[in-house]
Amino acid sequence: MRKTWLGKNGVAGLGLLAMLAWCGSAFAITGDKAEFVKLADDVYAYVGKRNDANAMVIVTNQGVVLVDTGNSQPDTRDIGEKIKSVTDKPVRWVVITQYHGDHFGGSPYFMPATVIVHDKVAKEIASMKPYQIKSWRKRFPERSAALEGLAPIDMVMSFPDRMTLNLGGKRIELIYVEDTYNSGDVAVWLPDSGVMHGSFAAYKDRHPDIRPDYSHGTTVTMLKQLEALLALKPRVVVPSHGPLSTVSDLQVMVDYILLARQKVRLMMAKGMALPDVIRNFHMNEFKDWDRATHFDWMAETIHRELSGQGPIIVTVKELNSSGELTGVIEAGRNLTLKTAEGKDVRLRVTSDTNIEGAADRTQLRTGMKVQALYKEPEDFNPALGYDVIELTVAR
Ligand SMILES: [Zn+2]
Question: Among 45, 110, 52, 95, which residue's Cα sits nearest to residue 361?
């Protein structure tokens, strides 16, 4: 474990930020309630509460195309309700803009829709582990009949580069920008109305989540994507997270990344070692942006990119701990577990986490006695906590 890292964004820092976000301070860029906004005829944005993942809905006379599937079970159900409020057509296609739980995790709710992803993502879905498939299948008990015997890959249709859907007179273009480290992020472009879902690259008012394992690509990947998206001059951009934006916000993101790269480059030129680069890196020029917790990983990622290194290869150990939840924030996404030995362990519940004894992570509360099986990465800064494989709540 690289202990030098824990100072800046350790438990205290994360807790404070999350608490501020919880109280609706400047860190909460979108409101406490999700919004469903009409962007054009038959096109709607689901703007997640408190900067949770956004979604986009396109209604055609052939059925509904849903882009991304919500941050947690209650959000996914809410998206389903919002769709019902504007059409009685079923969701027939689900496009995934990035293979992360807060975008893909709600997909079982809409089965038997066809899930459209990039080829790289299809490969990931095909190699889901049994506990992940189990968790996918039982995420929405009310859908258990539709999910019986179904594996996530059974519903997948994938493409290598670009793909156009022509549905009921509407043109829906799926755009993948080739790069070794683009992990399969797909933007969605509606040329007739000028509306775009900008996928991972289109952050607004939120520090991007780029990681040294390049699982979210690199800053170069992001710049390539932003260049391609900017050229289309969208009228409205639905970012992966945060308020609706426009083409000028895409340009802000370009400026952001160029500045972040320049900062790390200057520190490296002064001969600073990685731990010092991380300690001194910030993007406070972008005032009031959400998720300053991403700085450590961003600094390390850029450091790797600029020194010509590939992604960090992380070896993971599985550990088991039991104890009491002493901290539950972000609707159960981030937990602090006080173990029987009196150690504080920061845990991160992902959409793959198999939860036993509670319906979903939003039901987790401080004081609950739990047992957690989680992944401890070796030699890698677990800035957001350890990912939980299985969480069992004692009854
Ligand atoms: Zn996300």
Answer: 52
CA 352 – ligand 1 centroid, Å:
14
Tell me the CA–centroid distance for residue 67 and ligand 1, in Å.
Answer: 13
| Domains of the chain listed by start with CATH number | 33-200 (3.60.15.10), 315-393 (2.40.50.320)
Q: How far away, in angstroms, is 340 Cα from ligand 1 center? A: 33
Query: How many angstroms does the Cα of residue 273 sit away from the middle of ligand 1?
Result: 30
Distances (CA, A) of 69 to 73, 150, 226, 290, 335: 9, 18, 23, 21, 23
The helix (run of H) or strand (run of E) holding residue 150 is none
pLDDT by 10s per residue, the chain, length 395: 333 222 233 333 333 333 333 333 344 478 899 999 999 999 999 999 988 999 999 999 999 999 999 989 999 999 999 999 999 999 999 999 999 999 999 999 999 999 999 999 999 999 999 889 988 998 999 999 999 989 999 999 999 999 999 999 999 999 999 999 999 999 999 999 999 999 999 988 889 999 999 988 999 999 999 999 999 999 999 999 989 999 999 999 999 999 999 999 999 999 999 999 999 999 999 988 888 889 999 999 999 999 999 999 888 899 999 999 999 998 899 999 999 999 999 999 988 899 999 989 999 999 999 999 999 988 777 777 899 999 999 97
Could you tell me the distance, in angstroms and rounded to a whole number, from the CA of residue 395 to the centre of ligand 1?
A: 32
| Structure-block tokens of residue 372 | 């957690």
Buried b (16+ CB within 10 A) or exposed e, 10-46: eeeebeebbeebeeeeebbbbeeebbbeebeebbbbb
Distance in Å, CA 269 to ligand 1 centroid = 33
What residues flank ion ligand 1 with Cβ within 5 A? 53, 102
Compute the distance from residue 153 Cα to the ligand 1 centre, in Å.
21
Tokens found for residue 154:
């059974």
Q: Distance, CA 349 to ligand 1 centroid (Å)?
A: 14
CA of 70 to the centre of ligand 1 (A): 9
Question: Checking DSSP bridges between strand 195-197 and strand 236-238, what pairing results, if any?
Answer: parallel
Of 55, 77, 85, the C-alpha closest to 362 is: 77
317 contacts: CB under 8 Å, gap ≥ 6 = 375, 376, 377, 378
Beta partners for 391? 355, 372
